[in-house]
Amino acid sequence: MDKILRINMGPDGEPSVRTEPIGDYAGLGGRGLTSAIVAAEVPPTCHPLSAENKLVISPGMLSGTTGAMSGRLSVGCKSPLTGGIKEANAGGQPAQMIARLGYAAIVLEGKPKDDTLYQIRIGKDGVTIRPAPELKMLGNYDVVDRIKGEFGEKIACISIGQAGEMKLSASTVACTDMELRPTRHAARGGVGAVMGAKGVKAIVIDDTGAKMREPKDPDAFKKANKKFVEGLRAHAVTGQGLPAYGTNVLTNVVNEAGAYPTYNFKTGRFRFAANISGETQAQTEIARGGSATHGCHRGCVIRCSGTYNDKDGHFLTKQPEYETVWAHGGNCGIGDLDAIAMMDRLDDDFGLDTIEMGATIGVAMDAGLAEFGDSEAAIRLVKEVGKATPLGRILGSGAAVTGKVFGVERVPVVKNQSMPAYDPRAVQGVGVTYATSPMGADHTAGYAVTANLLGVGGTVNPLEPEGQAELSRNLQFATAAIDSTGMCLFIAFAVLDQPETFQALIDMINSFHGLNLAADDVTALGRKIIGMERDFNERAGFTSKDDRLPDYFKNEPFAPHNVTFQVKDEELDRVFD
Amino acid sequence: MGSGRRERRWHGAMMAPDGLTRVDIIVPAGTIRRFSTLLAHGFTVDVPSGITVYELLTGCLGIDPGIFEKQSQTLLHEGRPVDDAVAHRVTAPSSIALSGALPGLFGAAFRKQGRFAPMRHLPVCPGNQSETEAGQIGITVKLFNTAAEAIGTDLLERGVRISVEVFVDFWKRHLDDAPSPEIKIRIDGTDVATADVADRLCSGGGEMFLTVSS
Fold first, then answer.
1. What's the pTM?
2. Between chains, do A236 and B81 touch, taking CB under 8 Å as contact?
3. Which domains does chain A have, with CATH numbers?
4. Is B104's CB within 8 Å of A256's CB?
5. Residues A107-145: pLDDT tens digits?
6. Which one of B39, B145, B183 would you mutate to disrupt binding with A, by most A Cβ within 10 Å of its Cβ?
7. Cβ-contact A358, A405 below 8 angstroms
């Protein structure tokens, strides 16, 4: 993984390919590498759909190894949704294969001279690019079916659906899973639109003949990996809750805590939450012959995904995540798991961010386009995007655009990106992260909770209301570091609670790369990444005024606790001091 | 957890309270857990006013202290986090919820006595000392995820007071068409076909007393 593959899609002549050494970017992977390349090479004020923007696809530092949980793929660019820097990441098989082919990153540059749509194949024997008119305006499932027909099933695929082709700001980059289905998505920020602007419909990754990446110290790596896996399996979150119920295990409890944004963030409890909870979902999946425990990529030992079949027992979609179930469910007043699963399938097929689409439909419901709770109407609205109707193009551009078009004030976005499934009034520390993350409202930006073990948590008293800013900052550093390893963020739970598991992770990195990192170095990496990202955003024109929640979160008490967002602007401004 | 000790402590559900419809279900061995999702909606327990959350759950409900410790990673009283179950008292009708370990920032922030508690920025529940009621009070206990798995089967075997509306909805969605030979059901001592359960109960409203055994 010591080279970068650069593919220039134009505009002068045909696409061209060059491979270059990783050079100054050595030592980076995943989010660290995507953000470093975007920060260094993309003019911050460029149009996100212009030739000057770049789409950077990067496996993590441990991807392509035998290390558990190392299959995350980062996708970075200047975001069409936020106008700032973006990293979105996904599971699936591509990260492992790209890493085994030796690429630290694939960089799509330039822009085709016309609207020709291309298909790229990357293998050990080189790179081929050809026009692919037969894929035009196909959904991801059909794209993958055609690619399977051409290349067989020992490949992985990165693709965009209709939304990416239309360059909509809610569009995703899809990655195939172990079953070669396009179910894993780098979803946030409209990264699919940038791939669409480059004229790339699909990238086929074929690692035939490529070997597993070899550690510098194989014995130490094997030993550390074993200890790491033992730690994940021993921990209650990664060993029990997540495998049994997936991320949707959160629904019942977030709802009970009054933090479940319902009816477009109007209230914190949803009457039908239990009907769409992880517990009910798992029961439904098992009863229909699906699965409630499944990995999203080889090497995953947490296995928090699953298979959701329809009432007749046929595959409908992968297990919808908590955020998806909330976005299309409680946020829209919909308590029907089958309807939510259908929207998840449609989102995956069209290539849409489920969080952004759920939030957008909530805004559309506030605008009177459908009634809250009307699942059939919600499904029709999602289908508008796939049909490329004018309404569909508006909805596929996200909640902020939809709110403007239909004159809705209540639009739950930061930096134009929709908030996920925790109301910032009920969980105010999450609100700090929504407000200050360079990515826009993002629950994963401060998701990793390794701060104290990394030595950056400080001495915040848990019984004092102050301290969210410090915690949020440190969590964002930790998350950025983990996003660079290619590790799934869910490892953070075991790492937080079990010092030996955290040490095993450090040992894995050190033994693989021949390094001697300590906890402080990992923190420094996260700090460096966030620093690059914030610097890019500043150069793009962002100011402290962009690090704010919409006013209604400060003014409207949120039931049942009747709280408003109370963190002062000055405190938000001090997060990264 | 010895059953004798448990029976002595059990206040809320060994006997069907007067006036409540009693529903007894017999299912194949190993499938009682299928009903544990019902407990997410809550069941009612009558307890002495002023009891601590710990006493309520380990004493009144008979939950083994070790299991309680493991399965109460997040504890909510009226939706607000409880960090000290031993000290926290309930003195008015209200709800208590238990959850096993949860992922994400929310899970970390709402974990009992967790180091990321400041992320909540919601005051912990102070209890209801100012609203003390004398005598017995009705508490709605909700069990989620692994807590329902670990504790639910035992509770369902002993019996719980739940909402008729919730039970009928659950039955319609999951069991209305279940073949009768697999599931036997009695309502107030009379055998009822599975297809007739919802009709027999839906006019009742209020609460019912449910047992599930194998």
1. 0.92
2. no
3. 3-206 (3.60.9.10), 251-411 (1.10.569.10), 428-573 (1.10.599.10)
4. no
5. 999 999 999 999 999 999 999 999 999 999 999 999 999
6. B145
7. no
